[in-house]
Amino acid sequence: MKKTVLKKYAALIARMGVNIQKGQDVFIHAQPDQPEFIYILTEECYKAGAANVFVEFSFEPLTKLHLKYRRESDLSKVMPWELEKLKFRAEKLPCMIYILSEDPDGLKGADQEKLSRASQKRYPVIKPFRDAMENRYQWCIAAVPGEKWAKKLFPELRTSAAVEKLWEAILDASRALGEPIENWKAHNSFISDRCSKLNSMGIAALHITSSNGTDIKIGFNEKARFCGGSEPTVSGVCFNANIPSEETYVTPDRSKTCGKVVSTMPLSYRGQLINDFWIRFEKGKAVEWDAKTNKELLDEMIGMDEGSAYLGECALVPYNSPISLSGLLYYNTLFDENASCHLAVGEGYSNCIDGYDKMEKADLKKIGVNESMIHVDFMFGTEDLKIEAECFDSKKVLIFNNGNWAF
Questions:
Q1: Residue 39 pLDDT > 90
Q2: What predicted TM-score, i.e. pTM, was given to this entire model?
Q3: DSSP 8-class letter at 93
Q4: Is the bond leading into 80 cis (omega within 30 degrees of zero)?
């Protein structure tokens, strides 16, 4: 990929993604697939005003090695140096950039139960720092191609050609061709208008149906609001958390979901794919589910903690979104969720509650914002999807028809 194009993409992530403020620190977390791009991104962060840029690499084969040889008691510990890093982040509120490139099957064969137990034991130590940062810092998730990810999408091509083709697909889906920053200003404006339209309706619930068996009703608190595109921190700094992003999303009331939802795309979870699955909810909680592939991993996901069996997000994406029209299945949730309406089990977004910045965690929990150590999106959009809004004033409004916006 041309260096001039990559520099524009890096500038988009630094200036529109996390929107670095002069003197802020930046952490970049990446896999070691595109070191040249990480170099370019680091320079663009400095050009945008960063004081310090720290790059952290992870590597899935090493993760598998740790899971194989380390004792569970050691995996479960939060080391003193980790605590110091968490304290630093909670106090300094650096920008966090996550660059994805991992193999969709990269943790196949790993001991997922061991990983779950270790994560559960670490979570109570990490949670206070995560809560302290929530809605107060800028973060962005974007992607670059890895060789194994590229070959998963384009197995007929030699590796170098597959990587180049995935670069093209990522940049196109991310609106990073031409003038990326101008593209995103216009895109953010469009999504903002869509959110305003939805929020003006006073939506109490969404009834979602499709011919594949999805028939579910999702309810909301009166303070719930649809968000999407650029969002502000509590201090008013706007950023784009996901590049790409086509969704308008809202936080359900954790007790007000009833019915069955059927997935329509594979879910990449912890380096493995869960495929052909469905979940049934009663009074907000997942009570029954099944999957043709990796059902035991779906069990692990829904059983991670008390909140992982409840919904934390409902996101609307038209079937004719650019990523959907590309015809590509990315095997990566960042992209696939932007080709399809999706739900997420686990943690709810507090910023989707009007007045959230004046509420404590206990207040948010009282009005139905779910708490969990995970937040995992899965896709349910179809070509014949129908969504009817039931409003607090008793009106019913058709929101989606035949998979797309009905207004």
A1: yes
A2: 0.92
A3: -
A4: no
